[in-house]
Amino acid sequence: MKKDIRTRRDIERLVDRFYDKVKADDLLGPVFNDVARVNWERHLPVMYDFWDNTIFFSGTYSGNPMLLHQHLHGRFALTASHFDRWIDIFNITVDELFSGENASMAKQRGGNIAAVIRSKILGIGSRG
C-alpha cells in the first residue's frame, strides 16, 4: 500500500520523479531543456518550496509562477497541449508514488494551478 505525502522528503521525491519525466518527454522536454534552459540545481529547490507551501502551507515559497510562465510564453508559444501534458504527467507521478488525502489534494491543486495559468496565458479554460 502506498503512503500519503507527509513530509518535505516526500515532496522532494515527487518533484524529482516528476521533472525526470518532464525532461524526457517529447513535448515538454524541449520547452524546459532548450527554450527555458532550466538550471535544475536552482529550479528543483524552488519547486520543493512551492509544493511544500502548496500542500503543507509552510510559507516556504514566495515566487510568482504566473509571471514566469508569461515570460516563457513570450519566448515560445505555449499551447493547451503543453498544459494538458504537464497535468497528465503530474497526476501519473503522484499516483505512482502516493495515495491518500494529501496526494489527492496535490493533484487537485496542480490541476487548478495549471488551469489558472493556462486561462490567463491562452485565454481558454481547462480541458473538458
Descriptive terms for the model:
6 helices; Globin-like; globular; single chain
Question: What is the topology?
Answer:
Blueprint: H1 8-24, H2 28-35, H3 40-56, H4 65-75, H5 80-97, H6 101-122
Descriptive overview:
The protein has a single domain (8-122), classed as Orthogonal Bundle (Globin-like). It is built from 6 helices and no strands. It is mainly alpha-helical and 128 residues long. The N and C termini lie far apart (31 Å). Helix 1 packs across helix 2 and helix 1 packs across helix 5. The chain is globular, with a radius of gyration of 14 Å.
In short:
The chain is mainly alpha-helical.
The CATH topology turns out to be Globin-like
Class based on secondary structure composition and strand pairing: mainly alpha
Q: Which architecture does the CATH hierarchy give at level 2?
A: Orthogonal Bundle
Largest sheet: none
